[in-house]
Write a structure and sequence with these properties.
Largest sheet: 4 strands, antiparallel
Strand order of the largest sheet: 2-3-4-5
Strand content: over 45%
Shape: globular
Radius of gyration: 20 Å
Structural class: mainly beta
Number of helices: 1
Helix content: under 10%
Distance between the termini: 20 Å
């Protein structure tokens, strides 16, 4: 049975791509010329059905390919998993997580044979030795454990920048010197959720959805305030949907991803029940004019997750809509160039899920 694969991230390698279905925790290889996916392997989960109603959901949902190995980075999972394409075996790198927090590792970069990864849950930057397949070091993002990271980090040159979702702090971590700088951004009255860089300025989005421009060198923060009139936010409670305005007066996350697309910096909505938003907010970096682009053809107040699957040279952004399983490719003019439906083979029936999860974990021998 064919079905549309829903992933959180697609790692493109030429005409091939690698992705994990976030609902069934299975690794796929995609042929982008045909928009078809082949199952490579089931992926182990640390959860069982009797302890977690979603034992396979978003366990290791981000991929990174290095030669013949696919690194599967954990979101709700407990460790980094590595699938060896030659040996057809899965190994793992344990992560020190004494409080069992959600790791949320979805920002990572390779530099000189090492993989630098941000765990937004742990509040740490991990240095992963790719060859030894171990974690060499852990670095705190903020010295104060009460200061929590936002949802997004960006690497600029040798530095990784992290925002804070509950303070006005930004951390700059130099991966070459291992030195850290913390910036207190005066003028910010809310925490930040996303960060983007355009080679001159940093673009930030606040928890309430407000957009800010930060000039690090001049130590200047500017709030943009001419938002599109058709950018509306809704709230759903007990089957009732009502408009709650924009920006929000209360702190409810609106945007959770930001990226460059041609002359625009774009902000992707989280689209939660507390803040329904089906528009991509785009800011022209030349004149700061903001416009909103519909992410699907339905009403503004529909639920359904949007995920940024890939970026191609800041010229094409592939965004998946959960409601229809379509990946819309947006171009530099913010038009939809193409729509993709990645077809895969449905793997898990209810009986299969129960069989895999009957014990404490999905059996490694079955992967």
């Amino acid at each position: 049975m064919e079905w549309g694969i829903q992933s959180d991230h697609i790692a493109i390698d030429g005409n091939e791509a690698w992705l994990v279905d976030r609902n069934e925790n299975a690794l796929y290889k995609a042929d982008l010329s045909k928009d078809e996916c082949d199952l490579v392997s089931m992926v182990p989960t640390p959860f069982s059905i009797d302890k977690d109603p979603l034992p396979f959901y978003r366990i290791n949902s981000y991929c990174y390919k290095k030669e013949s190995c696919i690194f599967l980075m954990p979101d709700r999972g407990e460790s980094i998993l590595i699938y060896d394409l030659d040996k057809k075996k899965i190994s793992k790198i344990e992560i020190n997580n004494p409080l069992s927090v959600r790791l949320s590792i979805h920002d990572f970069w390779e530099e000189n044979g090492k993989l630098w990864a941000v765990s937004h849950g742990l509040g740490k930057i991990l240095l992963i030795d790719i060859n030894k397949k171990t974690i060499a070091e852990y670095y705190d993002i903020f010295d104060n454990p009460n200061i929590l990271p936002g949802h997004e980090a960006k690497k600029v040159g040798n530095c990784i920048f992290n925002v804070s979702r509950n303070s006005n702090m930004i951390c700059e971590f130099n991966i070459a010197s291992r030195e850290k700088k913390n910036y207190e951004i005066h003028g910010l009255t809310e925490g930040m959720y996303t960060i983007c860089y355009d080679n001159t300025n940093f673009w930030l989005s606040g928890i309430s959805g407000k957009i800010y421009l930060w000039d690090k060198e001049k130590k200047k923060i500017t709030e943009l305030n001419e938002y599109p009139k058709d950018l509306k936010i809704y709230k759903e409670e007990v089957g009732k949907i009502e408009e709650i305005g924009f920006p929000l007066e209360q702190e409810i996350p609106i945007f959770y991803k930001s990226f460059l697309l041609g002359k625009f910096v774009c902000f992707l909505p989280l689209n939660s029940n507390q803040a329904l938003c089906n528009k991509l907010l785009c800011v022209n970096r030349e004149d700061f004019h903001m416009i909103s682009i519909a992410l699907n053809e339905e009403k503004d107040n529909t639920t359904g997750l949007y995920t940024l699957e890939y970026i191609k040279e800041n010229r094409i952004a592939g965004i998946l809509c959960e409601r229809n399983n379509l990946i819309s490719e947006f171009g530099v003019n913010l038009n939809i160039i193409k729509k993709k439906f990645l077809k895969g083979t449905y793997v898990l029936s209810i009986d299969n899920i129960a069989g895999f999860a009957k014990d404490s974990t999905r059996s490694w021998e079955n992967c």
